[in-house]
Amino acid sequence: MITQEKLKIYKKYDGNIDSWARSGRKKEKTIMEDKDWGMIDGLIQDLKLADRGLAAEVYINDIYKRMNENCDSAETVEEIKAMLCSERNAPQPANFFSRIFNLYKSL
User: Fold this and answer.
1) How many domains does the chain have?
2) What is the residue-averaged pLDDT of the chain?
3) What is the mean pLDDT of residues 62-74?
4) Has residue 75 got a pLDDT over 80?
5) What is the mean pLDDT of residues 33-43?
6) Which band of pLDDT confidence, cut at 50, 70 and 90, is reported for residue 84?
7) Interhelix angle for 74-89 vs 57-70, to 10°?
8) Which among 7, 61, 82, 104 counts the fewest CB atoms within 10 Å?
9) Backbone angles phi, psi at 71, to 5 degrees
10) pLDDT in tens, 44-57
11) Structural domain of residue 49, as residue ranges?
């Protein structure tokens, strides 16, 4: 079951399961399991598809059904949706090739 506490851990490690696996505290690992992490990742990925208009209505309905079945509260469902919105509005990293070009230009 996905809870607010599990989402807090997920966000603490920016959704990076490897960081959590390497440096997560013992208490965090008793609260959160790999399958929880995978469920959160999957729901966010599915919401991204829906947000970009790449999912059929039937699939979107399935996403919301899975969210309601696997989250402990409506607040947790809303928090997952908010995570998608904050990710969408986050500044995008500079283009890799532009950074390389500017690096060589400055030499």
Assistant:
1) 1
2) 86
3) 95
4) yes
5) 96
6) confident
7) 120
8) 104
9) -105, 145
10) 999 999 998 999 99
11) 4-105
CA count, 13 A, side-chain hemisphere, 48: 12
Q: Is the separation of the CB atoms in 103 and 35 below 8 Å?
A: no
Task: Compute CA 61 distance to the chain's CA centroid, rounded to the nearest angstrom.
Answer: 19
Coil, strand or helix at 8 = helix
Token pair, residue 49, equals: 């598809």
DSSP string for 10-64: HHHTTT-HHHHHHH--HHHHHH--HHHHHHHHHHHHHHHHHHTT-S-HHHHHHHH
Tell me the C-alpha to C-alpha distance, in Å, between residue 53 and each of 29, 37, 40, 62, 78: 35, 25, 20, 15, 20
Say how many CA atoms lie within 13 Å of 40 toward its Cβ: 29
Rounded to 10 deg, the angle between the 74-89 and 34-51 helix axes is 60
Query: pTM (2 decimals)?
Result: 0.79
The stretch 8-28 carries a mean pLDDT of: 94
